[in-house]
Design a protein that fits this description.
alpha/beta, Metallo-beta-lactamase, Chain A, six-stranded mixed sheet, 8 helices, 13 strands, 21% helix
């Protein structure tokens, strides 16, 4: 996608310290995360699926295959947590078969913020949000979508971390296990430079000031807790740490 369209308030000079982002376009991964604990198996976001999107996607519909490659099947998933309701995060909620549309993860309850549904639910019948009728409304109709508010425990290890701004109810996740921590950021950050430039809010952020405040809070927490960053939009696989270089934060990817 075009960098100056997505980040429409940043100049070329702003990008100068980030040589990996000097090109006029930005490549952006679309990733999901699978968390397996002793008691639960949680999928975070369901990607793009078949949905058409402006993101440059060379492959589609890979999620179920990638889950299988990790040793799991759709029926093994207990919970599908959606960081928010944009199409590139909900696109494999439902699967079309010869008998109609069915939940891709048949034994799971789906979870998303109440604030996001308050906005997106009012737009189900509008053209830009037609995907909601296919990928979200059936979950409501089947009573398998739980609407949450604030900080709650998804499992003993996983706690919601509200990071509103990108959408009204955007929610990241804090994972704590065996003395280590990680944060699945969702769209609270789209590219690594935002770890340092927390004030950078891209065009899709519904409330740019609130998004920037959430991002700063989240990055401060990640640094304080020495937590691993997990991002579905950072270059794959999207994991990394924050270090300080000359008093400035820097995202260091790990494989």
């Amino acid at each position: 996608m075009k960098k100056n369209v997505f980040f429409n308030t940043q100049s070329d000079a702003d990008w100068k310290p980030y040589p990996d982002y000097h090109a006029p376009t930005i490549g952006m991964n679309v990733g999901s995360f699978l968390i397996h604990t002793e008691k639960r198996t949680v999928l975070v976001d369901t990607g793009l699926g078949k949905l058409d999107h402006h993101l440059d996607q060379t492959t589609r519909e890979t999620l179920v295959g990638e889950i299988a490659a990790a040793g799991f099947q759709p029926q093994d998933i207990d919970t599908v947590f959606l960081t928010h309701m944009h199409m590139d995060h909900v696109g494999t909620n439902m699967t079309e078969t010869d008998q109609g549309w069915f939940p891709t993860f048949p034994n799971a309850r789906y979870v998303v913020s109440k604030a996001d549904w308050a906005l997106f639910g009012s737009r189900v019948n509008t053209r830009p949000f037609a995907y909601l009728k296919e990928q979200i409304q059936p979950l409501i109709d089947a009573d398998i979508l739980d609407l949450i508010e604030g900080e709650i425990n998804i499992t003993e290890e996983i706690t919601t971390l509200p990071t509103p701004g990108h959408t009204p109810g955007h929610t990241s996740l804090l994972i704590s296990s065996e003395g280590e921590k990680a944060v699945i950021v969702g769209d609270a950050a789209h590219v690594p430079p935002q770890i340092e430039e927390t004030q950078w809010s891209p065009a899709p952020d519904r409330d740019k000031d609130r998004s920037a405040a959430s991002r700063k809070m989240m990055v401060d927490l990640i640094e304080k807790e020495h937590a691993l960053i997990a991002s579905g939009h950072f270059p794959s696989p999207g994991f990394g740490n924050i270090i300080r270089v000359d008093s400035r934060r820097k995202f260091i990817p790990i494989s």
